[in-house]
Design brief:
- The chain is of the alpha+beta class.
- The chain has 2 domains: about 150 residues, Sandwich (Jelly Rolls), CATH 2.60.120.10; about 120 residues, Orthogonal Bundle (Arc Repressor Mutant, subunit A).
- It has a 6-stranded antiparallel β-sheet, with helices on both faces.
- Helix 1 runs antiparallel to helix 4 and helix 7 crosses helix 11.
């Protein structure tokens, strides 16, 4: 398996973290963990060659070759699998600043879910008339996906700026910020922030902060060879070891030790090639 990173065009660089291309000629290895963990972004997924399946705790999503899909933020792990030996998949990671402006509302319908872009465009009155080309060429797909995302961008609203401020604080604090602190710094009530996050991001401020915090450790796990990769930073982020292990298991399905034994080469590709939070919608 190989991952190639493609930088977004100028119009989208604030709203998406990266475009990536996954390619392999022997399919997704059965022996690998094949775990896709929550990373706080939404996604556009286009299998150009071969088809994919994402299996969660309650649902199986089948992504057919040649079609484009949108996924919201996940707060649970999923397993990727494919019957196809040859795979070429284009993905776009949309950060929360982009989610609030690109995704049809309400965004919570996309949380832990994957919907075809074709279905979304045809069933949303405001989006009817958008072209939906079937893309089987990588170059055409990269151009067409970015063009479609640019056209889906909504005009700036005051509530977008509220979300932007909260997201920036959560990311800057590496998830180590409570809802009460967000309330104090934003000047808005807990109830109002919860409503905005559900509508524009898809998860609550608390869950989003937990995902960002967890990813500090998952990034460390992806790069470390030692099984106790977390020991030097554990108490900076969590009350105690049991609290950390509980949250790690929530987002991966494994304890840290069990995941180190099981391996997850697929997941490591993304964190090794594109460091977490290197670009997270906060650049100018």
């Amino acid at each position: 398996m190989q991952i190639r990173i493609i930088p977004p065009n100028h119009q989208l660089r604030r709203y998406i973290n990266q475009l990536w291309v996954l390619s392999c000629s022997a399919g997704v290895p059965e022996a690998d963990g094949r775990i896709v963990v929550p990373n706080g972004t939404g996604s556009v997924l286009l299998p150009i060659v071969g088809s994919l399946e994402f299996v969660g705790a309650h649902k199986r999503h089948i992504l057919k070759q040649g079609h484009t899909f949108i996924s919201g933020i996940w707060d649970e792990p999923k397993t990727i699998c494919s019957q196809s030996k040859n795979l070429l998949v284009l993905g776009v990671d949309i950060n929360p600043i982009g989610i609030s402006r690109i995704f049809p509302l309400p965004v919570h319908q996309f949380t832990n879910n994957i919907l075809s872009l074709e279905y979304i465009l045809r069933n949303n009155q405001k989006l009817i008339g958008y072209e939906f080309p079937v893309m089987r060429d990588l170059g055409v797909a990269v151009h067409s996906i970015q063009d479609t995302l640019c056209r889906l961008l909504r005009a700036e609203e005051s509530r977008h700026r509220i979300i932007d401020c909260c997201i920036e604080r959560i990311v800057s604090a590496s998830g180590k910020i409570g809802v009460n602190e967000l309330v104090e710094k934003s000047g808005y009530t807990k109830r109002y922030l919860a409503m905005l996050f559900k509508e524009l991001i898809g998860v609550s401020p608390k869950v989003y902060a937990e995902i960002i915090r967890f990813n500090q450790f998952y990034d460390a796990w992806a790069k470390a060879k030692e099984q106790d990769f977390y020991s030097d930073m554990l108490y900076e982020y969590y009350y105690d070891q049991s609290h950390f292990i509980k949250e790690f298991k929530k987002f991966t399905g494994y304890s840290p030790l069990a995941l180190s034994r099981a391996g997850n080469a697929y997941g490591k590709l993304f964190y090794n090639d594109f460091p977490f939070l290197q670009s997270y919608g906060l650049r100018e």
